[in-house]
Amino acid sequence: MFLLVRKQFGALRPANSDTEELIRKLKDGTEYSIELKRTRNLQWHRKYWLLCTIISENLPDNVSKEGVSDYIKIESGHVRLEKIGGEIHKFPKSISFSSMSAEEWESFWQRAVEVCCEKIIPGLVKEEIELEIFELLR
What we know:
Elements lengths: L4 E4 L2 E4 L2 H9 L16 H16 L7 H11 L3 E6 L2 E6 L9 H19 L5 H12 L1
């Protein structure tokens, strides 16, 4: 069961009609255990792919935005390790909404921008690229 709630006036309240309906179906007097995760914002996802696009368009090597994304994930440590042929290899992990909490995403975003500014385009200024992305998303 998935419930989307919002904190208002010191209490958790349904954030949509589906959640409201599900809560109505719960038995009164019964205790429930709930794991809370802050939801990610779709705008953050767009921001990331815009970052990858901008970086891709500014590289001399005709690298796709997907290639930039994979490089960012690996260099930022967002990887899973697999042993193949007796050797350990790094593979980029997913950044899907279901695989990362909002807190994990925020941490990943900071590392992603650092990778862009320090390893992909050294000298790129974090505040400048974030401002450019902000302007393009308006």
